Amino acid sequence: MAKIPHLVQYQGSKRNLAPKILEYMPRKFTRLLEPFAGSAAISIACTMENRAEKFIINDLNKPLVELLKIVVEEPKYAVRKYKEIWSDQHYDSIEHYYQIREKFNITNDPLFFLYLLARCVKGSVRYNADGYFNQSPDKRRKGTCPSTMEKNIFDVSTLLKGKVEFYSLDYKSIIEMALPGDIIYMDPPYQGVCGERDSRYYSGISHDEFVEVLKKLVEDNIAFIVSYDGKCGNKNYGKEMPITNGIKHIQLNAGRSTQATFLGKNEITYESLYVSTNLLKSSFFKRDYNGNELFSRVS
Ligand SMILES: C[S@@+](CC[C@H](N)C(=O)[O-])C[C@H]1O[C@@H](n2cnc3c(N)ncnc32)[C@H](O)[C@@H]1O
After folding, report:
1. How far is the CA of 38 from the centre of ligand 1 (A)?
2. Which amino acid residue places its CA nearest to atom 23 of ligand 1?
């Protein structure tokens, strides 16, 4: 698979793992639902391969979803606004970042958010207890330059324009929208990653509630894939999924973790993937919910 376009680096993005995750999806299906979309790496990867016709992109982080919507639907506006904000940092670049951060925390303007994502260390969003964005700038860089950002914006927009419904709801409301013929890809906030257990992301989810949601999907025979937890070296982070019926657990080799590389260790990170077993049956995706043959449309 060619390099998957992205808007900006986003912590926990599945951009690098996407080709391995897509191996568990059929060549064609009706809709991909991403209730924890983040940077929507899996939707972008799927549309690159023309696998799904429609996408539901959701994240509880509203400015993030509004940003994706503007990028997809109004790419020229996004390019112009980003350039304006980025170009304003000539005099004191660090102070400029803090000013934009303050403005973002007052207005929630998605284009301010794009600049913050592009300028903070590795797209690692951080929020304080009151929900205000409080990540510091990467002092060695000025953030993605406008020409690179323009390319990123147009690449993402070209792939997704006219195919996406955007939402900013709790994941459970999105799951209720699923129909036979759809696939739900879920990448909830980590329960813990190497060396860090803090306020990453906007919100967390309850493990027990999530387990109940997955059990119901198995009962309803809805196809889904979940990225859950991580293993770094021989350490396990978070709880295992206690469901075995209708779900297959796969350990994806995600390579060396950034943390391990930083510490000069040779530890491999494994990412747990839970795949609904209906996805592993070749007959499951023959027809969409309108009764149309899916595989006959494979290009
Ligand atoms: C691990 S990230 C997803 C990364 C994504 N797969 C990507 O490739 O960029 C988890 C996302 O879940 C979102 N989130 C947290 N709680 C949520 C909830 N209750 N409902 C929907 N989204 C939620 C976070 O804002 C975060 O963007």
Report:
1. 5
2. 60
C-alpha span between 256 and 270 (Å, rounded): 9
User: Tens of pLDDT along 13-66?
Assistant: 999 999 999 999 988 899 999 999 999 999 999 999 999 999 999 999 999 999
Residues 39 and 8: beta-carbon distance below 8 Å: yes
For residue 42, the ligand 1 atom closest to its alpha carbon is: 8
User: Would you give the end-to-end CA distance of the chain in angstroms?
Assistant: 16
- Please report, rounded to a whole number, the percentage of residues in the chain having pLDDT higher than 70: 82
- State the DSSP string of 88-134: TTSS-HHHHHHHHHHHHHHH--HHHHHHHHHHBGGG--BB-TTS-B-
Residue with tokens 């992205």: 6
189 CA from centroid of ligand 1 (Å): 6
**pTM of the entire structure?**
0.89
Q: In the structure encoding, which two tokens stand for residue 199, read together?
A: 């306020």
In angstroms, the Cα distances linking 114 to 4, 137, 222, 250, 280 are: 19, 13, 34, 34, 38
Residue list, ligand 1 pocket, CB within 6 Å: 10, 12-14, 35-36, 38-39, 41, 59-61, 170-171, 187-189, 201-203, 205
Q: Distance between alpha carbon 168 and the CA centroid of its chain, in Å?
A: 13
Q: Are 164 and 71 in contact (CB under 8 A)?
A: no
Which is the closest atom of ligand 1 to the Cα of 39?
A: 9
Instruction: Specify whether the CB–CB gap between 235 and 194 falls below 8 A.
Output: yes
